[in-house]
Task: inverse folding
């Protein structure tokens, strides 16, 4: 009885965020999405360690090599994970080059093996990799691209760029949407008219052609960091308008509520009323908008890079990697080049699942 009373008391004295966390833990699909995203961000953060090889290293003897097969049994005995060497041959009918396993050469896999040297985050030097071949033989978990570079390592570095583009872009989108929408909804009048017309003008413009025009205007001599930053800004230009309209409408509805009037009569400043009373009133929508805007930013960067007007080599992103699979011949002969697209699908689904869970947890009527 005492335990039940304590649990009941803790429920009534819990803060809004504590109640949201309790409800979120019951949403199992959202928990799965959160775990997947945390895992992907962790791998991307320590990409140099998890990559099997240097992303710029080319093996001309393994052009468009298929994904390596990991074996556990050698001659009927359990010997641990290993791979066979690859030998290049040709099909006697089509003369197409194919790779076959040379079962006379066995190479065992291991953890924390020594491999290509790297510098993590610009100052941490090392040569240990999470997974690799103990004797240093070539091993391609996702196969290789048209230049003989390891696709698995390049996908990991592509995750780093694509995932951070989404976060940085959403940060700008969220700030701009809340500021302009808050000003339009709270003050109204001329400010509302100017901001509303600006939003309508931006929303009337087709997104993809506008992105293409702005991205194509970037100077080709710019550094990778400049292009990365400007692509993020371009994606944020169109992203904030939808959030601004919702914020405006909510504030028009809530600014005359009794608790807002009481706070205003008590001497509360406009910025305090908006940030502490009005915006938290529809927190569930803001949370969902953030989680859904991240995959939209990622898809926007992927689209621009796939079309060749976004991020460009030597930058590695998921969109840049997908550019190698633009024609049907590449997909038919080397389907593993589409693996970056599978990661994009997983990322978008994980963010959608997370957004559903956060929406349900923040909704006071559920």
Result:
């Amino acid at each position: 009885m005492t335990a039940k009373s304590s649990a009941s008391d803790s429920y009534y004295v819990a803060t809004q965020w504590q109640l949201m966390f309790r409800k979120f833990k019951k949403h199992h699909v959202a928990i799965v999405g959160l775990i997947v995203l945390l895992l992907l961000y962790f791998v991307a953060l320590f990409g140099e360690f998890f990559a099997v090889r240097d992303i710029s290293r080319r093996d001309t003897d393994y052009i468009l090599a298929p994904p390596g097969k990991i074996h556990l049994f050698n001659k009927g005995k359990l010997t641990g994970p290993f791979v066979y060497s690859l030998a290049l041959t040709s099909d006697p009918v089509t003369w197409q080059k194919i790779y076959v396993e040379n079962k006379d050469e066995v190479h065992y896999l291991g953890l924390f093996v020594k491999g290509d040297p790297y510098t993590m985050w610009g100052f941490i030097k090392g040569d240990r990799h999470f997974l690799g071949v103990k004797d240093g033989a070539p091993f391609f978990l996702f196969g290789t691209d048209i230049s003989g570079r390891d696709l698995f390592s390049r996908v990991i570095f592509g995750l780093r760029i694509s995932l951070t583009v989404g976060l940085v872009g959403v940060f700008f989108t969220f700030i701009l949407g809340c500021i302009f929408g808050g000003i339009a909804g709270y003050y109204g009048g001329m400010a509302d008219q100017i901001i509303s017309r600006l939003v309508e003008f931006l929303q009337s413009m087709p997104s993809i052609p506008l992105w293409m025009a702005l991205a194509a205007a970037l100077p080709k001599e710019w550094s990778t960091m400049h292009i990365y930053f400007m692509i993020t800004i371009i994606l944020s230009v169109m992203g904030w308008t939808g959030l601004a309209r919702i914020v405006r409408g909510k504030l028009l509805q809530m600014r005359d509520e009794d608790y807002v009037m009481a706070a205003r009569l008590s001497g509360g400043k406009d910025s305090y009323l908006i940030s502490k009373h009005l915006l938290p009133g529809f927190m569930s929508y803001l949370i969902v908008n953030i989680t859904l805007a991240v995959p939209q930013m990622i898809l926007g960067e992927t689209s621009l890079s796939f079309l060749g007007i976004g991020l460009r080599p030597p930058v590695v992103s998921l969109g840049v990697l997908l550019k190698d699979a633009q024609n049907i011949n590449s997909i038919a002969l080397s389907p593993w080049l589409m693996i970056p697209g599978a990661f994009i699908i997983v990322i978008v689904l994980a963010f959608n699942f997370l957004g559903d869970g956060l929406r349900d947890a923040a909704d006071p009527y559920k």
